[in-house]
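Support request, priority: normal
Reporter: lab tech (M.K.)
Component: structure prediction queue

Hi team, I submitted a job for Nickel ABC transporter permease from Paenibacillus filicis yesterday, and the status page still shows it as pending. I've pasted the exact input below so you can check whether something in the sequence is tripping the parser. The sequence length should be 312 residues. Please let me know if I need to resubmit or if it's stuck on your end.
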Amino acid sequence: MLKYMLQRLLLTIPVLLGTSVISFGLMSLTPGDPAEIMLRSGGIQPSPEAVAAVRIQMGLDEPVYVQYIRWLWRMLHLNLGLAYSSGKPVADELLGRFPATLALAAAAVLVLLLIALPLGVASAMLPGGWIDRLGRAAAMVSTAMPGYWLGLLLLYYGAVKLNWFPVTGMDGLGSVVLPALTLGFGMAGTYIRLIRSGMLDALRQSYIRSARARGLRESVVIGSHALRNALLPVWTLFGIHFAHLLGGAVVVETIFAWPGIGKFAVDAILMKDYIAIQGYVLFMVLIVVAVNLLVDIGYKLLDPRIRLGKAS
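Reply from support: The job had stalled in the queue. We restarted it manually and it finished. Here are the results:
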């Protein structure tokens, strides 16, 4: 296990290097002068002399490969640069906003589990019944409804009309309910279908008949045998979605003005803050790599027969 984890961590080095090359190259090809943008964000009229002075100060007058090497050297020292819009270090901005994104992601996962797990299991236990029809209807609505539309509906009725929750921002536990519902219900449809199909397949297996023949309680048969094996494909998809949530649910955070890293990325794109965008991209790569490693370890916990590394 430890050897496998070290190998995976070493593989992140070329991944980060390749991502840095792509992100830096794309940012250098985008229209707009960072020096001019920086001056305008500071309320200064960008005259040609001022733009030239800022370009020299930022090193933008040098060749692209020299700029990349200097930027990469700063990255190795965990210096992501200064955001144009706020003038604060990008690393501080990301780390300061990450707890808000983490709280929203945890709440969305809780909503997802409360909806998808009971409906998926009950639909498989009683196929063709009213619970099964309810689960399939909920899955269809969840899959078909766009996240931004659901968010706007919840915002209008839950915050504006009924005044049950804060409209936007992060102000107490009530403010997380609407964005968490938007994210959790939006993902629930796929998981209801996956859990249902996995449970139906597991319940047909011989080891389930053997467990029932040994006189095990039905709750043990379902929870410890059928559900555990049915969750393997679900766990794979969950890793992808959880990395997306930790990277900031861009649309939902923007709709609800949630102060997470997703909204920070949107603001950076609108301001053409190239330094902030590059820092966000590298931060996202680290999150995806870490979550994928945790997902692989989770396979081992769900199914001890799985071997990590070359033996697998």
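Residues 2-76 form one domain. Residues 90-125 form the longest helix (36 residues). Let us know if anything else looks off. Ticket resolved.
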